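Researcher: Re-running this chain for the archive, since the previous output was lost when a drive failed. Same request as before.
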Amino acid sequence: MSDPGFEYAPIGLVELENRVIRRCNLHFASMFGGQESEYRDMPLLRLYPSHEDFERIGKRGLQVMRETGYYTDERIMRRRDGDLFWCRARGKSLTPDDPFRHGIWSFADISEERRVVELTPREREVALLTCRGLSAKEVGVELGLSYRTIEAHRARLLQKFGARKLPELVAKLSGMPL
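Model: Regenerated structure tokens:
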């Protein structure tokens, strides 16, 4: 049975079971490349830049969803042709006792708001926590690293994004106008 509200929504929608795509809408298929039918029963892992990103984001998302039943973030995803892009993901669990068992997720391409810069998984973690307003010491505690190591990661991020100071970096990471 067809659901036109789902099928023609102006945002990418997927129904997931245990992080496997059961169905997606036209916008999702267009955003990631290909036809809707090509995504049926596809592990979501295939659309992440790396297995490490899939595991790390999944672990963080599962923890939040166990508490709230809902999760949202901005992350880099991979299209089927291999191109990386910034994506806003939002998910709602339909099975709160087992959040990843069944849920509805939306995906929006936000790459026009921010450019993709090749980052290591650790640099992405530091960047995301920095955007949340955490100090180098707080980021270090969160990631189990020294604050000096965090400062070194931040210095590389400043260089990669062409930012002079931390607020400018955060603005660039957030896609805000400078």
